[in-house]
């Protein structure tokens, strides 16, 4: 069964950057999916059941925190590894991310190499 990574961000340039960072994994059979807002993210997570989600915090329609809470607490999809992406690095935000069930927190701007290494670690490749 192929592994899937969902990238969620409302900024097109961040989506492109993330896809470029992770495209090396496509050679290993990993499927990259994208969503541009929280509602789309939630629908994609329910339909595709990705192994890993890179989730922006600040988004229209539904925030990353709301999406994460819904996935982890309401849908009980504990096997989905969620990495919160945010431009804010305050401890308060990190605590909120952890409270809603985020597995990891990355602050923008991030290094593409860091994103790829984290994805490989989570997917075990």
From TrEMBL:
Gene3D superfamilies for this protein: 3.40.50.2300
Cross-referenced SMART domains: REC (SM00448)
Taxonomic superkingdom: Bacteria
Keywords carried by this UniProt record: DNA-binding, Phosphoprotein, Transcription, Transcription regulation, Two-component regulatory system
Domain Response regulatory: 4-123
One GO term (biological process): phosphorelay signal transduction system
GO molecular function, one term: DNA binding
InterPro entries (alphabetical): Bact_response_regulator, CheY-like_superfamily, Sig_transdc_resp-reg_receiver
Residues modified to 4-aspartylphosphate: 56
Name recorded for this polypeptide: Response regulator
């Amino acid at each position: 069964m192929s592994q899937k990574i969902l990238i969620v961000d409302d900024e097109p340039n961040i989506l492109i950057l993330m896809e470029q960072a992770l495209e090396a994994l496509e050679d290993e059979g990993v499927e990259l999916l994208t969503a541009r807002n929280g509602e789309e993210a939630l629908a994609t997570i329910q339909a595709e059941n990705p192994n890993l989600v890179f989730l922006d915090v600040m988004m229209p329609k539904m925030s990353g925190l709301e999406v994460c809470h819904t996935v982890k607490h309401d849908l009980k999809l504990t096997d989905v590894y969620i990495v919160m992406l945010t431009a804010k690095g305050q401890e308060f935000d990190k605590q909120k991310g952890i409270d809603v069930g985020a597995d990891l927190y990355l602050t923008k701007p991030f290094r593409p190499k860091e994103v790829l290494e984290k994805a490989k670690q989570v997917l075990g490749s």
